[in-house]
Specification:
Blueprint: E1 12-13, E2 20-21, E3 25-27, H1 32-44, E4 49-51, E5 67-69, E6 77-81, E7 86-90, H2 95-104, E8 107-108, H3 120-125, E9 142-148, E10 154-158, H4 163-169, E11 178-185, E12 187-188, E13 191-200, H5 201-206, H6 208-214, E14 217-222, E15 228-237, H7 246-270, H8 275-285, E16 289-293, H9 295-299, E17 307-315, H10 319-332, E18 341-346, E19 361-369, H11 375-387, E20 391-392, H12 402-408, H13 412-422, H14 431-437
Parallel strand pairs: 3-5, 4-5
Antiparallel strand pairs: 1-2, 6-7, 7-11, 8-12, 9-10, 9-11, 13-15, 13-16, 14-15, 14-18, 17-19, 17-20, 18-19
Helix pairs in contact: 7-8, 10-11, 12-14
């Protein structure tokens, strides 16, 4: 099966296996005009409309029982403006294809997430991010976007044109319209040196501020049931290129991070009592390494072991305290967790419903192997995150609603007012948006 999530007999499934939907019909428009016509036709038939990317969201944000728009044919680069330092791409372009095409042109995004299977519009609309001291999410790198609204009209938004729509639509949750093209800021391609090394939980938490200050991109993974973490520091480098060797790369990224890890998770799922022992081994499996390569080869990595994920954004100052509470909760519980907890950061941005909107942010992501019961762990973790005014990732598991978000986001009302204006009929509504934005 391809990376695009789908199912048999008209049933759509997401990548994580947490959501299924049965749309009345699926449309694969080959142009913006065809997409506009599909929205207008849905309106005539009284049907809701949702565009879906590769299904990498764990929430039902893309699910619909109306018209499902698949943007696979809306792909490719429309325009590269080297003077302005921008590239305009069709919304259905996978990040992987964008990254490779830019590299061939000697260009790169400044920052990116750690997975590149998603479409550019799916990734940005849900707030996908990597880690960065000064550089923010993928959506924060958007300079302009094109949007088909509920009446089928096509709007262009940027800081100068329709600025109030631009402020919200960069992370629009699919609630304001269907994004058809995105203009990103890009820069001449550069090299990053990655330094990966194990570090104790106590050391990484007690020196977190220094590690964050001293590195352009810092992140770490803590292995529950252990006092161990794996840290990763990515910084710009003058070179020379020193990529990970093919055999070493296969051994570490495919065999250990995907192959052995998959087997370890199967064992853990069958016999949860073995998980703490497996965690001790997993936390020591990957040794320290340093390599230098072009950005997408450093920022992103393959994720073949399927999982379910919850991620919350807290104020950066609160991350260590939140993490320590999470560790204490796991240590005193009977939970058995085979997946590491991932910690990343982002600077404050100016996007209405960005998880980093108006505050310097740190992200804590908890994962469970697909097919294992995750509710008890996620519920306990969410209780800790919300006590710290956490904001959940829009595309990952959470139980928050509009009432919570109205408190969590100072500009929440600005977004819902814009939605009332652009989609008064709620053409783009689904159950998820009803919950998180109100009806």
């Amino acid at each position: 099966m391809s990376s695009t999530a789908s199912g048999k007999n008209g049933t759509w499934r997401n990548w994580g296996g947490t959501v299924t939907a049965r749309p009345v019909r699926e449309v694969m428009p080959a142009s913006v005009e065809e997409l506009s016509a599909a929205v207008a036709r849905a309106a005539e038939d009284g049907l809701k409309v949702k565009a879906v990317g590769t299904g990498h969201s764990f929430t039902s944000i893309a699910a619909t029982d109306g018209v499902l728009i698949r943007p696979q044919l809306l792909t490719g680069i429309r325009n590269i403006d080297r003077d302005a330092g921008t590239v305009t791409v069709e919304a259905g372009t996978p990040l992987k294809r964008l990254n490779m095409a830019l590299a061939r042109e000697g260009l790169s995004l400044t920052n990116m997430g750690d997975i590149m299977e998603q479409t550019v519009s799916g990734a940005t609309s849900t707030g996908t991010h990597g880690t960065g001291r000064d550089s923010a999410s993928i959506a924060a790198q958007i300079k302009a976007l094109e949007l088909v609204t509920s009446d089928g009209s096509v709007l262009t938004c940027s800081a100068k044109e329709n600025p109030e729509i631009f402020a919200a639509a960069r992370i629009g949750l699919g609630a304001l319209g269907i994004v058809t093209a995105i203009t990103f800021a890009v820069e001449p391609i550069f090299l990053l040196t990655a330094r990966e090394e194990p570090m104790s939980f106590d050391r990484v938490t007690s020196t977190f501020d220094e590690l964050w200050t001293e590195n352009e991109h810092f992140e770490f993974y803590w292995f529950p049931h252990t006092g161990s973490t794996n840290t990763k520091r990515n910084n710009r480098s003058a070179g020379p290129e020193r990529p990970v060797g093919q055999l070493k790369g296969w051994l570490e990224d495919e065999f250990l991070s995907n192959g052995v890890f998959q087997v370890a998770n199967w064992v853990g799922r069958a016999a949860p009592a073995t998980i703490p022992a497996i965690a001790q081994i997993s936390s020591k499996a990957l040794s320290a390494r340093t390599y230098t390569d072009i950005p997408y080869k450093v920022f992103t990595s393959p994720r073949r072991v399927r999982f379910v994920e919850m991620e919350y954004a807290v104020q950066r100052e609160a991350v260590v305290e939140t993490l320590r509470e999470l560790k204490a909760m796991v240590d005193r519980s009977r939970l058995r967790i085979s997946f590491p907890v991932e910690v990343r950061t982002a600077p404050a941005d100016d996007i209405t419903l960005s998880t980093a909107s108006d505050r310097d942010t740190a992200y804590i992501a908890v994962h469970m192997f697909q097919g294992t019961p995750y509710q008890a762990y996620f519920t306990a973790a969410e209780r800790i995150f919300t006590a710290h005014d956490g904001r959940p990732h829009w595309g990952k598991v959470h139980t928050r609603d509009a009432e919570y978000f109205a408190r969590a986001y100072p500009r929440f009302g600005e977004f819902t007012a814009l939605r009332d204006r652009l989609d008064p009929e709620r053409r783009f509504q689904n159950d998820y948006l009803r919950r998180v934005l109100g009806s």
